[in-house]
Design a protein that fits this description.
Blueprint lengths: L1 H7 L2 H20 L4 E6 L14 E6 L8 E2 L12 E7 L8 H11 E12 L4 H11 L3 H4 L6 H10 L2 E9 L9 H15 L7 E8 L37
Parallel strand pairs: 1-2, 1-4, 2-3, 4-5
Antiparallel strand pairs: 5-7, 6-7
């Protein structure tokens, strides 16, 4: 966790953070509901500042300044069908059970809830650099177990999630703020605007679908470890165009 936070403090990490935040902004501005959850490894990188959802939770394995829920990613202490928007920030990159983590994210999402997956692309320039550093003994990248975007799309389909979009960000690492870094930033911006399938970080936007069968009314007794998220008295954040309608 600390090593990944230190990596995001570098010039390359800050460039990746800005690119991810810019790509999330239009999605979060139109997302609505009662509860938003970010699950990740870093403790001081909230990505939900542009969201209109008022109640936001930040889950991480260790306490931190912005962390409100301390838990493992594969066992979230939240009720099923309770989260409207879930942001998974690198929580699939450094785990031995990524499929279980993905199942847990799908479980806590409400029907038609939105899932945003962010992770390192193992086939990008940074992915090759991370593998090389791992072979050289870097403790962070030795533990890196990336999952490719194509495999994640298959897993989401099996879990009943419909993919809205899959993007790759940061095709070139921005090294410094000089002329070379400016050229790389311009090339990255052009590539992201044209949605080219290259980049060091993927962003997948998926929607949890529900079947046509009716669910039973009776439910099992609540476990003591689950956190119930009640519906606030205030109305949910309206979508754009609702007032006009």
């Amino acid at each position: 966790m600390t090593d990944l936070e230190c990596w995001y403090a570098t010039s390359v990490g800050r460039a990746v953070q800005r690119s991810v935040a810019a790509a999330l902004e239009p999605i979060l501005e139109t997302a609505f509901g009662y509860h938003l959850l970010q699950v990740g490894l870093t403790r001081q990188q909230p990505l939900f500042d542009n969201s209109r959802i008022r109640h936001r939770a930040y889950a991480a394995p260790q306490p931190g300044h912005a962390v409100t829920v301390v838990s493992e990613h594969a066992e979230l202490p939240l009720e099923s069908d309770s989260i409207d928007v879930a942001i998974a920030h690198h929580c699939l990159d450094f785990t031995a059970q990524p499929h279980q983590v993905l199942r847990e994210l799908q479980r806590v999402l409400t029907p038609h809830g939105q899932l945003l997956l962010i992770g390192f692309n193992p086939w990008g320039v940074l992915g090759a650099s991370h593998r090389l550093r791992g072979l050289c003994g870097n403790p962070l990248w030795q533990r890196h177990q990336p999952v490719g975007c194509a495999r994640l799309l298959d897993w989401l389909r099996l879990l009943g999630c419909e993919t809205e979009s899959a993007r790759h960000l940061c095709p070139l690492p921005v090294l410094g703020e000089g002329r070379l870094g400016g050229y790389a930033a311009a090339a990255n911006g052009w590539s992201e605007r044209h949605r080219l399938p290259v980049g060091d970080v993927y962003l997948i936007h998926a929607i949890k679908q529900v079947g046509g069968t009716a669910r039973p009314v009776l439910r099992a007794r609540r476990s003591a470890r689950l956190i119930g998220l009640g519906v606030p008295s205030a109305a949910p954040t309206p979508r754009q165009g609702d007032h006009a309608a």
